[in-house]
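User: quick one, fold this
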Amino acid sequence: MKNIRPLGVLLIALMLGLTAAVYAASWLKQQGAAATLQVVVAKRDLQMGTRLLPEMLETIQWPKAAAIKDPLTTLDEALDRVIHMPVLRGEPLLRSKLAPAGEKGGLSAVLGEGQRAVTVKVNEIVGVAGFALPGNFVDVMVNTLDSQNQPVSKIVLERIQVLAVAQDASNSENKPRVANAVTLQVTPQQAEQLDLARSVGSLSLVLRSQSDNTPVLTVGARKLDLLQMGTSIPLPRPAARPVQAKPVALKLTPEPSRLEVIRGMSVSQE
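Assistant:
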């Protein structure tokens, strides 16, 4: 009888401890669920223009403290949609990264409303030695003849986004790639200007900073501008010529005539 009482107390303590543990686990689970949000993420790196398939996606719990704007929360929202910008592995899919519903994928899904894609032929020099990668911005410069039939170089289009290099729209490698064609995103008016520029002269791409939004107005560079540019090297001065002394004409004043007068033994001049 004396041994049963301690055993009963121990059993009651174990039951209370187990109940507390279950309650604590349930409370922590509820708190964890309240502090996270289910989001859809990419299983691997995805290129822009990719149509989303089930094997490309998964759902994870995302902490609400690290808030993200308008994420996709279920796989059904993402399936068969097209992304218009690259998505990295483990990156949440946002609605702002999806092309409009109905797009079938490819480069056309990347174009914004009212935008066009135009391809220009480039070489190692024109293509900035391969540093013009998808997602970068470039200025387009043309070298042609002006109204006086003189050569001129002029920037005709500014801050044009590179959509693809050759046939690759991916910039995941982030390494220089020399290709024979670059596809640019332009407006219809810019497409006309670009087509005219490549028909009247030779094109060059000028790489610019991603954060540089300031337009620059130039008058172009001509051959005469290059010849009139100053130089930092001092030029020798021509040697000074010796100065020859001019002959000075001397004016001689004639002495006044005098008369010699003799008076007796004395002689005087008057």
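User: anything notable?
Assistant: The radius of gyration is 45 Å.
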